[in-house]
Structure formats: structure tokens, C-alpha cells
């Protein structure tokens, strides 16, 4: 399913750039992804969509929780599509708050106990060193598309983007190629069928969440390791220290918070997610931080919730 969505995004963007311009925007991709998640996951998914005006005020696009109704892994996702020539607007500044979008993404993610990531939409395939390494370390599943289109949707730590934007503020240019080369296919990170075949019995939700947690942690540590801000202490790498965006969240604590979200495995669902689990999709309670949509994916073992199609987080059986 995630593999299928990646392939669909890949071809859609490729055609938009090369055959039938213009290419769709990030919002279209997000809407389409959410539609597909809803369609494939049936009653295992709950989707809450919020006011677009709210979303424009901040760096984050949408939030996804993979959970078993008590514990889960939360991602705060900022979508970025590749331009025809493989560039991404990583250094986008949110005018209203005079802050970099990547900084707001991190700040908002930490406020809701999420891991901040960029979701890149790409229209070409590659195999990067980081992907090989992560796969060898067992953090990624082995599901890939023969035509490379699983690279249509890839994840990159927002901390990695922050450090790159910091470099740019110091007078360097953004290294788009380096960043996409470090990003990992989202299906291989979020797969719920690692090391199984079609015939294997379903895995327990605990195992599924632990695998996803490990992969997401690996992705984040890769991002932090590349970041001078986090590896050498709280030195400001760009000019947003004194900005209002940071007024409530001192950066020094931010480092600890980044690690706290990743400590001790999948953590208890925070109150705003528990509230959404009980809420009606059309009438969500207001989110704690602005968000375009919040998607809850239930991987719990309760088979009563199984949709007619077999649940499959990465590949779609058909
Ligand atoms: Zn997989």
C-alpha cells in the first residue's frame, strides 16, 4: 500500500514534469495520499482534516500516528515535491512568523510528541549509501518496486534539513542531491510486514510498532549525526534563535526533547491522539498545534477491525 502510493506519486510527478505539465503541488499529493490510505485501510484508519488557514501559519503539513490504541509512533510530516531538476524548497521561510519552516516543524512536532520528518516526492530513482546501510542493518524492509518507483515517497529527518539550512545561512548553497540521497523510501521505513511473506501469520502490533519505531529512530539519528547544532551542543546555526517561534521552547531543551520522543520504544499515546480516537471524523476537537490533517492508523491485533482486504502497510496484495 505505501509502496503502491510511492509508485503512484512517482509516475504522477514524472508525468507532470515531463509529459503533461504542470506538476501537481504538495497539497494535491497530501490529499491523494490520505484518500488512498483511507481506501486501502478501511476502518483501521481515522482521518481528521483541519482548516487550511491554520496550516498556512506553520511549518507542518500533517500528522500520522501508527498505533495500537495504547502506544504508537507519531510523525509530523512536511511534504516537499522535487522540481523538474531535482530541487526542493527546504529553506522556505514562513513570513508571518519570520521563521524557517523546518524550525517550526521541529518545534510543533516536539509539542505533540512526534518525530519531525520531510516527505519528499521524487520523480527518479536511485540507491543511496544510507539506504543500503539502513537495509543491511535490518531497519528497512525488502519491499522495492522493480522500476525503482518506491522512491516516489521518501522520508528525511527534519533535523537534517535544519542543519542544511544552517549551512546555507552561513553562505553555502543547499545541497539538494545530498539530502535526497540520504532520504529513505517511506514504505521501507514504515513497513508492517518486515521479514514476512504473504503466507506468514499477521505480526503482533507490538512487533510492528517496535520495527517502525526502530526505523524511525534510525532515520532521526542519521539526521542528528549530520547536524552540527545537535552533535556539538547548542550553538545557533542560523538566525532564528531570538525569534518568537522559539520563545516558549528554548533550543537547549529542544535537543533533549528530540531524544526524549525516541527513548524507550513506542510511547503512550498523548492526550490529543486519545481524544481523536474517540472523536467523530467530521467533528474533531481543535488540534494542540495547527495541522492540515491527522491520520491515525490502527495496527492493533483486534481482528474484529480487519477490513475485507488484508491489511498491508507496505505492499498491496492483489
Ligand atoms: Zn515492506
Q: Helical residue percent?
A: 25-40%
Radius of gyration: 18 Å
- Structural class by sheet pairing and helices: alpha+beta
Q: What's the total count of β strands?
A: 10
Q: What is the number of independent domains?
A: 1
| Main sheet properties | 8 strands, mixed
Element string (H = helix, E = strand): HHEHEEEEHEHEHHEHHHHEHE
Contiguous uncertain segments of 5+ residues: 231-252
> What is the global morphology?
globular
In DSSP terms, counting alpha (H) and pi (I) runs of 4 or more, how many helices? 12
Q: N- to C-terminal separation?
A: 10 Å
Query: What small ligands are held by the chains?
Result: zinc ion
What does this structure look like?
By secondary structure, the chain is α+β, with helices and mostly antiparallel strands. The chain has one domain. Helix content is 39%, strand content 15%. The chain is built from 12 helices and 10 strands. The strands form 2 sheets. Strands 1, 2, 3, 6, 7, 8, 9 and 10 form an 8-stranded mixed sheet that branches. Strands 4-5 form a two-stranded antiparallel sheet. Helix 4 runs antiparallel to helix 6 (158-169). It is globular, with a radius of gyration of 18 Å. The model is unreliable at 231-252 (pLDDT under 50). Residues 141, 143, 187, 191, 193, 314-315 line the site of zinc ion (ZN).
Amino acid at each position: 500500500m505505501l509502496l503502491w502510493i510511492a509508485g503512484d506519486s512517482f509516475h504522477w510527478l514524472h508525468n507532470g514534469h515531463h509529459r503533461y505539465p504542470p506538476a501537481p503541488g504538495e497539497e494535491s499529493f497530501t490529499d491523494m495520499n490520505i484518500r488512498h490510505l483511507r481506501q486501502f485501510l478501511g476502518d483501521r484508519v481515522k482521518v481528521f482534516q483541519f482548516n487550511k488557514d491554520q496550516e498556512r501559519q506553520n511549518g507542518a503539513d500533517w500528522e500520522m500516528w501508527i498505533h495500537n490504541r495504547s502506544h504508537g509512533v507519531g510523525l509530523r510530516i512536511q511534504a516537499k515535491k522535487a522540481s523538474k531538476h531535482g530541487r526542493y524548497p527546504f529553506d522556505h521561510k514562513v513570513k508571518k512568523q519570520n521563521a524557517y519552516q523546518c524550525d517550526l516543524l521541529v518545534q510543533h512536532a516536539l509539542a505533540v510528541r512526534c518525530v519531525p520528518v520531510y516527505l519528499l516526492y521524487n520523480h527518479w530513482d536511485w540507491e543511496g549509501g544510507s539506504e543500503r546501510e539502513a537495509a543491511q542493518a535490518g531497519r528497512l524492509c525488502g519491499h522495492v518496486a522493480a522500476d525503482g518507483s518506491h522512491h516516489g515517497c521518501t522520508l528525511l529527518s527534519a533535523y537534517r534539513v535544519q542543519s542544511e539550512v544552517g549551512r546555507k545561512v552561513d553562505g553555502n548553497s543547499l545541497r539538494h542531491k545530498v539530502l535526497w540521497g540520504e532520504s529513505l523510501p517511506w514504505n521501507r521505513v514504515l513497513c508492517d510486514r518486515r521479514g514476512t511473506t504473504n503466507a506468514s501469520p499477521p505480526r503482533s502490533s507490538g512487533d510492528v510498532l517496535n520495527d517502525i519505531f526502530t526505523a524511525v529512530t534510525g532515520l532521526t539519528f542519521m539526521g542528528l549525526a549530520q547536524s552540527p547544532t545537535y552533535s556539538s551542543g547548542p550553538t545557533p546555526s542560523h538566525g532564528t534563535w531570538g525569534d518568537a517561534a522559539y520563545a516558549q521552547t528554548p533550543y537547549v531543551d529542544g535537543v533533549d526533547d528530540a531524544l526524549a520522543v525516541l527513548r524507550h520504544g513506542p510511547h503512550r499515546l498523548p492526550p490529543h491522539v486519545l481524544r481523536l480516537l474517540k472523536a467523530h471524523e467530521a467533528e474533531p476537537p481543535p488540534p494542540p498545534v495547527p495541522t492540515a490533517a491527522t491520520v491515525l492508523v490502527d495496527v492493533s491485533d483486534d481482528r474484529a477491525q480487519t477490513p475485507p482486504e488484508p491489511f498491508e502497510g507496505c505492499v498491496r496484495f492483489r
